Amino acid sequence: MASQHQSRRSVRGGPPAAPSRQWSTVGQPTGKANYRPMTGMSRRPSRQQLQKPARQDSIPEAERNESTPDQNEQPVQPLPNSKKRYSYGQPSDPRVAAEMAVLTEYVKEKSLMSTMMTCCQAVLQRESLPYNPYPVFVSWMRREAERFHMFAKSTKSIQATLTSKQQSTTTPHIYGVKGHSNAWGLEAVINAVDPQALKRYDWLVEDETPTKLVLSDEQQEYSGQILVAMVGPAAFTGTMYRKAPSIDIRVEYVIYGPDLPTALLIFNSCISEDIRRHISADCPHRILGIVVPRSQPNENELWTVEQAREKWDDFWDTVRDSVLQKRPIVLQCMFLLDEETAEYRIGNKQFILHFVETSENSQQERFRSFAELPYLTLYEGIFLRKAHAETYVMTLKRLQETTNQSGANANGHRESMEDSLASLHEAERDDGSDLVNADEVREPIRAKWQRQIAKCHPVRDALILAHLTFLLALSDRSVQGSEVRIELYRFLHSTAASWYAATVLNSALQVLVTTIDQENEDDGKFLTQQFLEYKTKLLTAINPELHARSSEMYILHRNLGNVLQNMLIPDPSDASKVVLKALDLNTLQQIQNACLSLQLLLTEDAMFFFKRLNFKTLVRGCREAFNMNAAKAADAGKKKPQVKSTKSSNSLTAQTSSPAKMNHGVEVKEITQQKNIVIDVEEVKSFSNWPRIMVTEAVLMQYMVDIKLDQVWHEYLLELLTGDHLPPNPYPRLVTVLRQAAHRMQLCAETNASLSTKLLRPDQTKLVDRINSIHGVTSVGAYGLSPRTLAGLDAEPSGFIKIAKLMEGLTNKEVVARRGQFQIEVSLAVGRGCAFYGRLVPYLITLHLYEHYYIRGNIGADSDAIQLYAKLLYDNISSLSAQNHHILLGVFFGGGSRYMSEADLVDDKATFFSHVVDAARKKEDIHLKIYQPIGWRYLRIHKHFVLHYLFVDNTEDRHECYSPDDPSSVCQSVFLSQAQASAHARGGGAKQLGNLESATNLRGVNEYLSKEIEGALDGHQVMPAYQHILCKALVNKDKKLIADAWRALHSLAYQLDYIQAINQDLQDLVRYALLFPGKLIKASASSQSLAKGRGNKAKGEAGPSSQGPFNDAALAKFASVYSEKLTSVLQEPCAFVPSSLLQVIQDKLQTIVDVDNQTNRQSLPIEQETISTLKEIWQLIHPVQDWTSFDVHKALSHHGNGFISPQE
After folding, report:
1. Are 810 and 909 members of one domain?
2. 306, exposed or middle or buried, with CB in 10 Å at 0-12, 13-18, 19+?
3. Does 265 share its domain with 398?
4. Considering 994, 1010, 1039, which residue would you say is the last residue of a domain?
5. 892-900 long-range Cβ contacts below 8 angstroms, 24+ apart
6. CA dihedral in degrees (1133, 1139, 1142, 1144; nearest 10)?
7. Cβ-contact 775, 765 below 8 angstroms
8. What is the distance, to the nearest Å, from the Cα of residue 137 to the centroid of all Cα atoms in its chain?
9. CA 744 remoteness from chain centre
10. Can you give the pLDDT at residue 466?
11. Which of 377, 401, 628, 671 would disulfide-bridge 633, Cβ 3.0–4.6 Å?
12. Distance (Å, rounded) from C-alpha 381 to C-alpha 229?
């Protein structure tokens, strides 16, 4: 329906034909907007075929004989005779009628039709219509799916939940809930708690309450009180939170005595005793670590118990300094919440000191509080005992009295806490307000929360922001404050909040992994128990069997389930139980990053329903109020790599990319640039011959017909009707259907027949050697044994020719024809579908080359042949190393289970020979991993080595191949010369197979490929499966499979595979530079300027290598172009990536390239932190890669031509 123009192009229409008098009975494709040809009755005039390209970027004019009417004149032709409208007839079968009635009522009850119509109206009201509107539909319906959870309760019901009947006490400001004795605090806070839900914490708080002060014999004149409060989300369990993500307990010591230093020692002793109790065998709780604030603001230090023991004096000096700075000491714990179910919950235990100085020589008490702010606990939580709440208020009242008496010091300055109360001279102020509610108390507390808000990311830390905002809104009695609390309630009951609560245990597991001995039986059992709890919570939160879920959550649930299950093994002592394998930190971090990707998506959907709230505005306002830089605030307390450039940018590429556009493979612009195509409604209307009274509706109706929304909607309703049950929430399934429709719209513009005709060129293949059955594409020098696969070769300059150039420097030309009793031939072939790069496969991720060694000898001499083979490999690798044209990462044996670097080969030649012999005997793969500089990138090349031993047995030629069996390799191998192809025909086993086109041989190839396809799909490797499907399609000349394989390999899913592979390449190269720093050459400024100029050099051309193949400027350029491509792919509408995830990734990308302001020279930091950052980016994108591949596969399968895995 459209063609492309400029960056943001519109579809302009020539004057279409007047409506036909007759409607066609056989539908025809209506242009590129039609991703499937209509097979039913068309609803457009038969003559309105958009086929005359009157001008570029236009809707082609229809064929017609009449002249185009003037713009101001009505069409002279009569209107068509309209067909009778379709009307719904009641089914005659009572059962069918009953089912239809149920479905009709269901659609009406769930507002499906009205919601979809509203969404369509929002799209159709635009001046420019998107070529592919399905991403818009997906975003809209995804929010409707979340609305089901967030609006399950009415506003009145939420208001009732956040309101409780209170009872006052004799102590001012302290209130409780009528009928309950376990919640006491400020009126505004108590109003939002559920005492019944808090009862589950009674045992825990009681167990965590110290019984008395720890006093030595010399300290008996000291006394004190211990007050315990619950703060944080747990205090609002049952109201704002279904299940609080953490439990925070605050223990406040009030110590009476004559001397502050001694009081500090007592306080340290109390903390020390608490730590000892937690690490004892009798304590049911587990301590993870001790967080001690450092001298710098926003900096904390985590001490393990072992570290504290080793550096006891240093640890307590740090604790003492923190107390004097009025920053609390925190124990990170795993609290046992329920003894019967053994449920643990992560939490913190905070310690705060208040000191009352008493002296026999003075009747006055001097009070000094080391709390961060006065009355902070009252504003952040509740006390579970009334006496503790009352004592807390009466104790802090001394602070005001002490402030009145002490006055200013000599310099006119006060301590920060006392300064906030200096103007209060009485407990009851003249204006009637009291101390607790005074602005001098409330404003510093609000400022503290606002500073915490300023440090948060508006989406990634949305759940933290929600809690802080709720605390700020508690004291707001206005209508707006009530609305904010209701919005926060809904947000904290969203899928995003449930998912966040399920993921927080991951951080505790990471600490446990680094602090406990997994070999210890008790520790191992505890770790297994917590891992199983984490697994259950994580999978339950998005379980598609409990709640309807869209495809992204379904896929993540499936993949996480597999990963987590694979980390468990049966218990040797009890087959009914499982035990945890050795748990490593990297696996937990990978799972957490995968969870973060979904968290950001769910959070953005939930935040859409904010009306009063806007976290981005809130965070920005707080940062401006406290003069905090965004990056500094977001990374407060974290060490961030230094970037020398002072330029501000949203992405790395804006800083470092050159104006020239980098080429990525052989992309189809009609697909990659589809997001820029729009349809200008007014311009189409101006060329239309429809009557003015109906022209708008006609154009918009034609648009809706072209995008085939009616077929998608029918598909969705049919799935509902044929399902086991009608889901309570119908929108997640609709989201999945629309996601897949978006990919079909993007990929299925052409029919299978027309697409396969463009892709296959059987006439380019000729038989060049009848004896050995060698066929060739002589125009590009490509030869092989299968004419079927050669028909898919791209003979254009951007295709196989580039592959041929890459192979030239890797061919082994130094092998002599005879060594002793053995005759030797060598040939190099392209394999694994890499020869199809160009027209069929757009990206070259890894170039797989197969070097075949044909050794002919006597029967029984195979052992000597393998030794000779090992020597030939060693000589070839040594020769490549000496040429210094490639980066040799090393040799991998047996699928990567064993590895030898380039340096290992020099130092330990015997081990290399041993590995080669062992791998050949086991028929395992042996390959050399190489990186070759080509233009802006380093191309990954795997050079596989294959041994064929030929001998005569009883006058029969025999062949033995010492590599993994692959019957399809003979069809996929493409050689650069007829001589090499003939050598392979003679020595590669083809002679023994006979006619490769025979039914028997084709059956063997098909069985092998089918098995590989099923295995890849079972392992959720969708794009590798389609590479096998492409080979199978070529072998069988299956036009349908060829078309679908092409679509899959040109989809967004394959683009994601491509950029993920580049990410791994960067990790490999940085790791290589760390291991072998002498290999990385520091490029001069002049050479870097030359490198910039060859950014658009053809893919098959390598740049100058006078300075060696590995230099820092080229590596930095590689990273910069990767960043640009990654950003571009994630911004694709069909990627469905939340903007916050893109921002998080861009923030990480900015740290992996340094730019010197003086020389404008780029460099990639060669450090472990760079590898870690790249790995985090890879892990964040991996879930998007998985669910995009799933959607593409299902979209193509539904299209009717896809290869469907057995389990589907």
Report:
1. yes
2. exposed
3. yes
4. 994
5. 892/925, 892/926, 892/927, 892/928, 892/929, 893/918, 893/919, 893/924, 893/925, 893/926, 894/919, 894/922, 894/924, 894/925, 895/924, 895/925
6. -170
7. yes
8. 22
9. 23
10. 97
11. 628
12. 7
pLDDT at 42 over 90: no
Q: Which tokens is 137 given? A: 């539909």
907 shares a domain with 771: yes
Q: Does residue 474 contact residue 192 with C-beta atoms inside 8 Å?
A: yes
Per the domain annotation, does 649 fall within a domain?
no
Residues whose CB falls within 8 Å of the CB of residue 876, separated by 6 or more in sequence, listed in order: 812, 814, 851
**Whether residue 821 has pLDDT greater than 60:** yes
d(C-alpha 301, C-alpha 195), whole Å: 35
Q: What is the pLDDT of residues 940-990, one digit of tens each?
A: 999 999 999 999 877 778 889 999 999 999 899 999 999 999 999 999 887
Task: Write down which residue in 426, 454, 473 finishes a domain.
Answer: 426
CA distances from 763 to 753, 771, 787, 795, 970 (A): 17, 21, 10, 12, 21
Q: What's the CA gap between 246 and 535, in Å, rounded?
A: 17
> For the purposes of burial, counting CB atoms within 10 Å of the CB of 753, is it exposed (0-12), middle (13-18) or buried (19 or more)?
exposed
What SS3 class is residue 1181?
helix
Candidates 509, 169, 552, 201; CA nearest to 332 is: 509
Q: Is residue 1036 a part of any domain in this protein?
A: no
Instruction: Kindly state whether residue 1016 falls inside one of the protein's structural domains.
Output: no
- pLDDT, mean of residues 803-810: 91
Dig out the tokens for 406 from the structure.
Answer: 């002490």
> 631 in a domain, yes or no?
no
Q: Do residues 839 and 792 share a domain?
A: yes
> What phi-psi label fits residue 820: left (phi over 0), alpha (psi between -120 and 50 degrees) or beta?
left
Number of separate domains in the chain: 5
**Confidence band (pLDDT; 50, 70, 90) for 1199?**
low
Q: What pLDDT, in 10s, does the model give residues 97-119?
A: 888 888 889 999 999 999 999 99
Q: Write down how long the chain is.
A: 1208
What are the tens digits of pLDDT across the range 213-240? Answer: 999 988 899 999 999 999 999 999 999 9
Specify whether 702 is located in the same domain as 778: no
**From CA 782, how far away is CA 400, in angstroms rounded?**
91
The number of angstroms, rounded, from the C-alpha of 1155 to the middle of its chain's C-alpha atoms is 27
End-to-end CA distance of the chain: 34
Range 605-618 burial, b when 16+ CB lie within 10 A, else e: bbbebeeebebeeb
| 87 — pLDDT class (breaks 50, 70, 90) | low
- Provide the percentage of residues in the chain whose pLDDT is more than 70: 84
* Residue 1038: C-alpha distances to residues 742, 1196, 1202 (Å): 25, 15, 12
Containing 60, the helix (H) or strand (E) segment is: none
Contact predicate 781/976, CB 8 Å: yes
Q: How far apart are CA 596 and CA 171, in angstroms?
A: 46
Nearest to 1163 by CA among 1060, 1083, 1075: 1083
Hunting for tokens 């009793």 — which residue is that?
821
Same domain? 721 vs 814:
no
Residue type at 570 in one-letter notation:
P
Q: What is the model's pLDDT at position 75?
A: 41
CB atoms within 10 A of CB 939: 20
Is residue 1146 within 8 Å of residue 650, measured between CB atoms?
yes
CB 1109 within 8 A of CB 884: yes
Domain match, 709 and 774 both? no
Q: Please state, in angstroms and rounded to a whole number, the distance separating the CA atoms of residues 586 and 1124.
A: 27
Domain co-membership, 520 together with 384:
no
b/e per residue, 232-264, with b = 16+ CB within 10 A?
bbbbbbbbbbeebbbbbbbbbbbbbbeebebbb
**DSSP for 61-125, written as a single string:** BPP-SSPPPPTTS--SSPPP-PPPPP-PPPPSSHHHHHHHHHHHHHHHHTTHHHHHHHHHHHHHT
Contacts of 161 (CB under 8 A, 6+ apart): 153, 194, 239, 489
Its domain, for residue 137, covers: 9-71+93-150+680-749
